[in-house]
Specification:
The complex is a heterodimer.
Chain A (H helix, E strand, L loop, with lengths): L11 H19 L2 H4 L3 H6 L7 H11 L3 H13 L12 H4 L4 H8 L4 H8 L2 H38 L3 H49 L3 H10 L24 H14 L9 H10 L3 H32 L6 H4 L2 H9 L4 H37 L5 H23 L5 H13 L3 H9 L5 H25 L7 H22 L5 H11 L6 H9 L21 H5 L3 H25 L3 H47 L7
Chain B lengths: L3 H30 L9 H24 L20 H14 L5 H25 L4
The chains are: A mainly alpha, B mainly alpha.
């Protein structure tokens, strides 16, 4: 096959900026080598001592990969502003900071697999930990592969290079600082990369709007083309239906429910796993909460900048039929219209978003391989230096595996949607139940995982291919999978025993989960492990002073803060895009988002401060217990 | 490039393989380290599981009988070619870019500012986190 000619011609200044910024990113990671090699906790969690803004930028940077602008460009070009709802799944970061993030941070588990062995008990817990660790080790390699494949495509588009160069070159560059400094290198480089990419995305989007004639011209031309509906994020073809080429109100409802209430659970989104690492690397519960909240919100901001710019691209090129072509729309705005010098910076930003995602998943895959598979199962008595060495070897193996997979991926979008379905639909409800309901046990969760893997293949690919099911729209696939998988895990839950009460009490006292934990709570109070606060007085919403015991309890403040946070996210998504097009409702939504954000902070911050302070006092004791469990000390009976 | 269909099968085989390895390690370790026997399911539960499996197997048989024969899908190109401008056009566009910017020095000043800021941030982060206590 003849390789396409290059699209962009760099001048010397462009190459200089690209080279300098890439060198800076590598140096920024590598200089933390000394800190990264100190211990397993340093190599994978930066010593659990980061202020909120470092993991926050890392959350944002990780949510932004090379394929993200292509994916979002594709949805906006096809669906108009309502395409904003597809990437809105980042809004699980709206409620999560005040529910699942808080609970996970208190568990002190290094990984989601480890959390399973703290939350559940017995053989089921161990099987779940082993299964999840294996799955996540692979899944992170898979993510590295598909992001690398996207980079390969970008390099074909820009320079006409063979795809393997884009797949191998930049991922290898990234591996330099992941191998040397571990998570210290990842999070510090992410900070640089997050800032650079945010600035450049903003710049290119504004430039694109300017080149399209400005906001008013974009709106006018859309109206003249008979495409005025594209500026309305709430434009529906009908309330519901089964035509995958239409956008239904039920699509929006499904996406909003999935995103916003998904924040109650753990593990129901592919992004949860890297963010769990960021949560645990934050120095306090409060820092963890704000890191997730701010990082997710930055991703929502970013999406809206892209959306406004892509509408500009649409009015310039309104009749592109091929997704493979219009997916490059945002890149074209930058590479076709920016002046010399800034082109090089744009390419540096593309490399930055690539490296930030790759580095995260290389380190995270190595975390599961090292902490859960090697440390817990193969060599529980391993020294810290040995564990760091195994972390590095795992990183290298993941890198090589990702090259093999990355060179086999042709269609990025198909893989992305498949992977998201695989992760999200069938285990969405169980992932929430495991957080909120004490009776949900390890066998139920494990069965939901395995059933989901089988049924997602059946529902999405096999049965439509056999003609047993029609090709269903996304909303129908989601709910069908949720019901089918429920038919497996609900009976399994009730046919197997609840988890061991001693184990549940220990978990409850440390993590204080929300929801339906009545029997466990009563047992903990009966044993004198926590105070009985049933007669605790209630406080006003803006109560400034909390005692540690009051702050540990779930109150109306958590519900109100979660609701305000979700409203803030929603208003930002709509408001930023609307304001960039100078729509009055856009500015009104932005104002509303600021009010919601401010009020949320006032309601929840005093409580978060108090509970963080109280938890820090007990953290070293809890941490020692968690580490003893990983080493199987005191487990034999 | 590896064939995409083979890549998907390879990928899923690796996913299940690595997960199964994790399950195996977990099972072996649990049996080796935890002496106390754990009975997970009652005989009634086992009966229900067997019944469900029988129903599922029967269902699969019925579905396979009712299913239409699969239609051979049209072969699509594995990689969609991206339409690109000829090299000469790109070169001309690049040359023109230097002059067409409304702010000619922006290609120099903006990257310099961000680069210097980013370098300062790197130094500040390293200095802060290298101190004792971190």
């Amino acid at each position: 096959m003849q390789e396409p000619a290059s699209m962009v011609q760099f001048v010397l200044l462009d190459w200089i900026w690209t080279g300098l910024f890439v060198a800076l990113m590598i140096v920024c990671g590598v200089i933390f080598y000394r800190l990264g090699k100190r211990s397993e906790a340093d190599f994978f969690l930066a010593g659990r001592g980061l202020p909120w803004w470092l993991p926050a930028t890392s959350v944002y940077a990780t949510h932004t990969a090379t394929d993200t602008p292509m994916w979002i460009t594709g949805t906006i070009y096809r669906w108009g502003m309502r395409g904003l709802w597809y990437p809105f799944f980042s809004a699980w970061c709206a409620i999560s900071p005040f529910v699942s993030t808080r609970i996970f941070r208190r568990s002190l588990a290094m990984s989601q697999a480890e959390w399973c062995s703290l939350r559940y008990s017995g053989m089921g817990a161990e099987l779940l930990r082993g299964w999840l660790a294996g799955w996540q080790t692979f899944m992170n390699m898979f993510v590295v592969a598909w992001v690398s494949a996207a980079m390969g495509k970008v390099c074909v588009y820009l320079f006409g290079w063979p795809p393997w160069i884009g797949v191998v070159l930049f991922t290898s560059v990234c591996a330099i600082y992941v191998l040397t400094a571990g998570y210290w290198g990842v999070v510090m480089a992410d900070f640089q990369q997050g800032l650079i990419s945010f600035l450049v995305i903003t710049l290119v989007s504004l430039w694109g709007i300017y080149e399209a004639g400005g906001p008013t011209m974009i709106v006018d031309r859309l109206a003249a083309l008979g495409e005025g509906w594209r500026t309305n994020p709430f434009h529906f073809d009908a309330f519901w239906g089964l035509d995958g080429n239409k956008f239904y109100a039920l699509d929006l409802i499904t996406l909003l429910v999935m995103a916003i209430f998904g924040g109650l659970g753990m593990g129901n989104f592919i992004d949860w796993y890297p963010e769990a690492q960021r949560i645990q690397s934050a120095r306090t519960v409060r820092d963890a909460a704000y890191s997730i909240w701010a990082g997710g919100l930055a991703a929502i901001f970013r999406n809206s900048f892209w959306a406004a710019a892509i509408l500009g691209f649409f009015v310039m090129f309104p009749s592109i039929d091929s997704p493979a072509e219009y997916e490059f729309g945002w890149f074209r705005l930058g590479f076709d219209y920016l002046p010399a010098g800034l082109i090089g910076m744009l390419f540096a930003a593309i490399i930055a978003i690539h490296l930030s995602t790759i580095s995260t998943h290389l380190n995270l895959g190595a975390l599961y391989a090292t902490r859960d598979l090697y440390h817990h199962y193969v060599n529980p008595k391993a020294s810290e230096s040995r564990l760091v060495l195994v972390g590095r070897i795992s990183t290298l193996l993941l890198l090589i595996g990702s090259f093999v997979l990355g060179l086999s991926m042709g269609s990025i979008t198909a893989w992305l949607i498949f992977a998201l379905w695989l992760q999200a639909a069938g285990i969405w409800v169980p992932s929430i139940l495991q957080v909120l309901w004490w009776r949900f046990n390890s066998w139920a969760y494990l069965s939901s995982w395995i059933a989901n893997l089988l049924m997602s293949w059946l529902v999405v690919f096999v049965l439509p291919e056999l003609g047993v099911l029609p090709q269903l729209p996304d909303w129908a696939n989601f709910w069908l999978l949720a019901v089918l998988v429920g038919l497996v895990y609900v009976p399994v839950c009730f046919l197997t025993k609840p988890d061991d009460m001693d184990h549940l009490v220990e978990y409850y006292v440390q993590a204080r989960p929300a929801g339906f934990w009545g029997p466990v709570r009563r047992e903990a109070i009966r044993r004198g492990l926590m105070p009985d606060s049933t007669s605790q007085r209630t406080h006003g919403l803006l109560h400034p002073h909390w005692t540690p015991h009051e702050a540990d309890e779930w109150t109306l403040h958590d519900v109100v803060a979660s609701g305000l946070s979700a409203a803030c996210y929603l208003l930002v998504a709509v408001g930023v895009a609307g304001a960039l097009l100078l729509r009055p409702w856009g500015f009104a939504c932005l104002l509303g988002s600021m009010i919601c954000g401010w009020f949320m902070f006032k309601v929840i911050d005093p409580k978060l401060k108090a509970l963080s302070l109280a938890f820090e006092g007990n953290q070293s004791g809890y941490l020692a217990r968690v580490n003893r469990k990983t080493r199987w000390e005191g487990e034999a009976s | 490039m590896i064939n995409e269909a083979i890549g998907k099968i390879l990928g899923m085989a690796m996913a299940y393989g690595v997960s199964a390895l994790g399950l195996f390690l977990a099972y072996v370790n649990y049996r080796r380290r935890i002496v106390k026997a754990e009975k997970v399911m009652t005989p009634v539960a086992w009966g229900v599981v067997v019944a469900i499996l029988a129903v599922v197997a029967g269902g699969v048989l019925v579905v396979s009988q009712l299913a239409e024969p699969p239609v051979a899908p049209e072969v699509a190109p594995t990689i969609a070619r991206v339409q690109v401008a000829p090299e000469t056009e790109a070169a001309a566009a690049a040359a023109a870019r230097v002059d067409r910017s409304p702010w000619p020095l922006i290609g120099m000043l903006l990257p310099v500012t961000i680069f210097l800021f980013a370098t300062w941030v790197t130094g500040a982060l390293y200095t802060h986190f290298s101190r004792a206590g971190h």
